Amino acid sequence: MGMFMRDSDLCKQKELEKLGMACKQWGFFQAVNHGIPLSLTERMKAIVKEFIQLPLEEKLNYKIEEFEGYGQAFVASDDQILDWADIMYLTTLPQEERKMNFWPTKPVDFRETVDQYALEIQKLGNTFLCLLSEYAGLKADCFIKKYEKMTQLMRLNYYPPCPRPDLALGLSPHSDGYALTVLLQDDETVGLQICKDSEWIPVQPIPGALVVNIGDMLEVMSNGIYKSIEHRAITNMDRDRISIAMFYGPARETEVGPAPELIDELHPCQYRRFILADYMQNFLSGKLEGKKNIEFAKIKS
Ligand code: OGA
Ligand code: NI
Question: What is the mean pLDDT of residues 245-255?
């Protein structure tokens, strides 16, 4: 898996090359030296664990409604095998779209910590979107300028120990919907796997690192130069695991489509234009099944 370090400007070109290659070949990389204080990432993990340990009645004050809150996600039918996970979805940016009634007040610093983390992840997300825009041969701000108002959605994942890891997945295979995902995962327990050449490859946790991956929207905006990658989470028999996914991309009301600069005779347009909210509606109301959601955007030849 590709590694990206922001050590010095001197090696920026080399690092950009590594980053771009990792994103093209893997669609995933681990970011180290990302500049977000370890104290903040550690506190993020701690508040998730503290929230999960609250009594169920307390957590049900934030019960999931319309894709926001605590509970189980991607339930499309009564007879489907559910993923072995409790999740919590919160819109974190733009600030005015936060639905504060879903934001826990316990632990007491939950809201403040998430707020700080959301802003840090936005900065990092903008940095990566600019670098990936440059690597694709575009002006640096191509993936963000048109989308000045950006959306950030957080998903907390809690995977309890599972008596039969062979029978249940923590999270079914899927690609992520927004442009970029930044995942903070447990240091101790391996669970995330990515699909490469039809094989499932575990992503070994690196303490302090953030796992970054390409989502469907960046695949669309880059006209397929970058591809979202299928991934899943497995369960463990005797250990639980948490992860915190931050999905980042254009605002919900934005019309999204491939950057016109990337389309020519040799590179025909592969995706149609659509409103992001319609894509997300389709995404969140179905089951998770690999990369099926991107069919919504593909132009069939
Ligand atoms: C996700 C995701 C993986 C993990 O939340 O979209 O892929 O390891 N999570 O929890
Ligand atoms: Ni995912």
Answer: 95
pLDDT of residue 2: 47
Q: How far is the CA of 102 from the centre of ligand 2 (A)?
A: 21
Determine the 3-state secondary structure of 203 from DSSP.
coil
Euclidean distance between CA atoms 89 and 92, whole angstroms: 9
Taken in order 232, 225, 26, 46, the sign of the CA dihedral is negative
* Spacing, Cα 9 to ligand 1 middle (Å): 32
Strands (E), the chain: 2-4, 28-31, 69-71, 86-93, 150-159, 169-174, 180-185, 192-196, 199-202, 210-214, 231-234, 241-250, 255-256, 274-275
**Statement: residue 110 has pLDDT above 70:** yes
Q: How far is the CA of 232 from the centre of ligand 2 (A)?
A: 7
What is the rounded average pLDDT of the residues 144-170? 91
Q: How much is the average pLDDT of 170-191?
A: 95
Name the residue of 44, 158, 175, 181 to mutate for ligand 1: max ligand atoms within 8 A of Cβ. 181
